[in-house]
Structures are given as C-alpha cells and as structure tokens.
Design a protein that fits this description.
309 residues; alpha/beta; Rossmann fold; four-stranded antiparallel beta sheet; 27% strand; binds adenosine-5'-triphosphate
C-alpha cells in the first residue's frame, strides 16, 4: 500500500489507548495501545491466556476497559456496531440452537443496516447445501462456517474473527481464507486472532504478538522473523564426527543430530558455520535459512518469559 496524505489523515479503524482490563487478580490486557488502519489484514497472535479474546471483546464493546479508551471508527465500539460497520465471528457460543442455518443467517441479514442477500451470504460461506439443517446438528467445522456467515451478513468495514478456522478441515480453511482475501481486497479491515501461525504468515500484512496483555511485537511477518534473530543451519555429515564438539559450537540455541543429519538453530549462523569448518567438518547439503513465523514466535515469547522471570 502506498502512503498518501489521505491515508495519513483517515480516522483509524480501531484505536486502543492505554487500555487495561483485569479479572480479579489477572491482568488480561495491560496498558495496550494500538491503531489499526483501513484496509489492513491484521493477525493477533499470542500464547494461551495472552489476552487476545479479551482484546477482541473490548474492541466489540462486549467488555469495558478498567482504564484507557477504545475507539472504533472514531466512536465507541457500540456505536460502530449499531451503525453496521463491524462484523464479528467469535470463538464459540452465539448460535441459536433450534433454528435452521438459513433462518439464523436471515435474521443476521435482517439486523444488519447494510445487509446482503441471504442466498449470497450462504453461498459465500459455503453453507447453501446445509441451509435447511438445524444449527444444533452441525459439525464443528460447519458451525464455524455459519459463524463466518453471520460475520459477513452485511457490508461491514471491519471484520473481527476470533480463531475462525478452528475445527475446519484443510479445504474449508483454504476456502475461508480465499473469501477473506476477497473481503480485504474490497478495502475492508480484517483482524483475526489465531493459533495457526502459518495462516498469519500467509494472510496477514501485519502481525501483532500479545504477551501477558501487552504488545510484544508489531510488524510484518518478515520483520518478526528477522527480529527473532535466530536462523536454522542444517547439513549432512560425512563419516564419524565428534558430537560433543558439534554441541559446543558457538551461538547454538538448539541442536538435533539424527543419524548423519544435523539441524541447528543459531543466534549467529555465520559464526556457527565458520566454527563448524574450524572443527575440520566438511558439511554436505549445507543450508542456512531464516526461521518460520512459528519458530520466531516461540523464540520471541520464550525470550520474553525468560526476561520477566
Ligand atoms: N471471564 C474471566 N474470568 C476470569 N479470568 C478470565 C476471564 N476471561 C479470561 N480470563 C483470564 O484472562 C487472561 C486472558 O485471557 P484471554 O481469553 O483474553 O486470552 P487468549 O489470548 O484469548 O487465550 P487463548 O489463546 O487461550 O484463547 C487469562 O489469564 C484468562 O485466564
């Protein structure tokens, strides 16, 4: 996206300013400040209990902050929702049991100030064929698709998704993200919490990592991988090698020796490889690669745990 004067002056989609929310002694969200801009697809990551769901609940006005302010399109979350600007798909619950899929989706469309046609919503969510089924007879993945339909029942500017693909099979997941990309391409802002880091890597143009209610990192997936600073070194051994010497290589954060194959994670891959040659080892099929988002996420959150303890 090119930055223009227009984007700079546009009202943020979401603005959290020093937001704190506790449950008894547990501080679920701790002084969180963040801004989401129009058209962004943003992944919200964090270990269990990091505060993702609470953050989304605050954004949707389902919970009120103890302190700080939450603004959505420059208004309160409630006003933004009443105006039909926000569509949401939450983790569980929220489905009336004794109605059919079509009835439920029809209701969601009727309630949306900028509603879509029911048949289009069903088709987009891939649930036309189960439209007459009772909601309490659905599989977990089908129920997720219905929640997705409810979140896209009208022309919302912001779509909020809490672990949307949990329970979906691989093809449902792919179809889901293809639809979500279309929504984003039409200029909508999409914010989703997930534990599937490969989804965040593939879909999000911005990744927020929460840790104990605070924002640990905020950047593109590539920036977060680079920030973790660790790279993978893998190679095959030729002939016997002194394992103790290998394990003593500098900057190693983990090492796995399996038969003739060695896999290392190193905080300074160049120095590790240099020292490897210094041992007189001639590695075959040497590869030095960056971490995936998943490993980077683990490295960053573990480092933060260590720092705080
Ligand atoms: N209703 C509640 N009452 C008491 N504590 C709560 C409540 N809801 C959440 N918490 C606590 O607040 C913290 C943040 O929870 P939250 O559900 O926001 O995290 P999360 O990042 O969404 O976790 P997960 O990945 O497991 O879904 C956790 O320590 C959780 O136990």
């Amino acid at each position: 996206m090119t930055t223009t004067a227009k984007t700079v002056t546009t009202t943020p989609v979401v603005g959290f300013d020093q937001v704190t929310k506790s449950y008894g002694d547990v501080r679920a969200v701790d002084g969180l400040t963040l801004t989401l801009h129009p058209g962004e697809t943003v992944a919200l990551l964090g270990p269990n209990g990091a505060g993702k769901s609470t953050t989304l609940d605050l954004l949707l006005g389902l919970k009120r902050p103890d302190s700080g302010t939450v603004r959505v399109f420059g208004t309160s979350p409630r006003e933004a929702i009443v105006a039909g600007r926000v569509g949401a798909m939450l983790q569980s619950g929220g489905l009336m049991e004794e109605v059919t899929v079509a009835e439920l989706v029809r209701l969601a469309c009727a309630l949306h100030p900028r509603r879509y046609e029911v048949d289009d919503v069903l088709a987009r969510a891939g649930i036309s064929k189960i439209a007459d089924r009772k909601v309490n007879k659905l599989s977990g993945g089908q129920a997720q698709r219905v929640r997705f339909a409810l979140a896209t029942a009208g022309d919302s500017d912001l779509i909020v998704l809490d672990e949307p693909t949990t329970g979906m099979d691989v093809s449902a997941r792919q179809a889901f993200w293809a639809t979500m990309r279309e929504q984003a391409d039409q200029g909508r802002t999409v914010l989703f919490a997930t534990h599937y880091l490969e989804e965040a890597d593939a879909v999000a143009d911005r990744v927020l990592v929460l840790h104990r209610g605070r924002l640990l990192t905020d950047g593109t997936a590539a920036e977060i991988k680079a920030k973790a600073g660790v790279r993978r070194v893998s190679f095959d051994l030729e002939g016997p090698v002194d394992e103790t010497a290998l394990r003593g290589l500098p900057f190693i954060t983990s090492i796995d020796i399996s038969g003739q194959t060695v896999r290392i994670q190193s905080a300074d891959a160049d120095a590790t490889v240099h020292a490897l040659y210094g041992l007189g080892v001639h590695p075959r099929n040497l590869e030095v690669t960056g971490l995936g988002l998943e490993q980077a996420f683990v490295a960053l959150t573990e480092a933060e745990e260590a720092r705080q303890s």
